[in-house]
Amino acid sequence: MGKNSSLGDSIKKIISGLRKEKGEDFLAAWESAAGEGASKHTKINFLKQGRLVVSVSNSSWLYRLTLEKQNILEKLNRTQNRKVKELQFRIGDTG
After folding, report:
1. What is the CATH code for 2-91?
2. d(Cα 84, Cα 82) in Å, to the nearest integer?
3. Is the model's pTM score more than 0.90?
4. How many CB atoms within 10 Å of residue 5?
C-alpha cells in the first residue's frame, strides 16, 4: 500500500507541475501580447471554451485594452495552442 501511495503522490506532483508550467507559459504569452505595462494592471481570471476573461485595474486600462483587443487576440493565438475566440475585460482586483 505504501508503494501505491507514493506512486500516486508522484503522479499528482507531475500533473501539478505540468499544469503550473502551462499556466506560466500562458501568463508569459499574455504579457507579451498585452505588453509589459498593461500586464502589470491586469489579472487573468479564467479561460473557458475559448473565452478569456481578464480583470483590469481601472477604467483607463479597460478603455486602452478594449481598443487593442483584436491585436492582443491575434498575438495570443499566434503563440498559443489554445485558441482564444473572445477576450473580455472587467474592472476588478488585479492583485
Report:
1. 3.30.300.180
2. 6
3. no
4. 9
